């Protein structure tokens, strides 16, 4: 009786320990994730452009730029927060998870009121990616009216 329970328990443990499927590729076994929650799955965010220069602006102009990105990882990308280095810069983003291969955007509005000369503003993106924080930059040169 005790021996039978041992084998049942052992069978349950062995069945639960298999969390990935293996398949043959080029004659070798390769483990593949069974879900996006697999420990090997990660989200990756890729921006074709991480900075944008608005060029010369008149003081008081409000301008926007859209930074586009793609999730090149194997897990859904979740943007946790987006923060600007200044109150004159307002980022807007979609809070829904972006699946692997999916695309998204972050729209940044810059208000040049009360600003003069060369302006460098940083937008920090906090997400579930290995880097933890991704930095975007906007630049503008504000002229007097």
Automatic annotation (TrEMBL):
PROSITE patterns reported for this sequence: PROKAR_LIPOPROTEIN (PS51257)
Domain of life: Bacteria
Record Gene3D superfamilies: Immunoglobulins
UniProt-listed Pfam families: DUF1573
InterPro entries: DUF1573, Ig-like_fold
Protein name: DUF1573 domain-containing protein
Lineage: Bacteria, Pseudomonadati, Bacteroidota, Bacteroidia, Bacteroidales
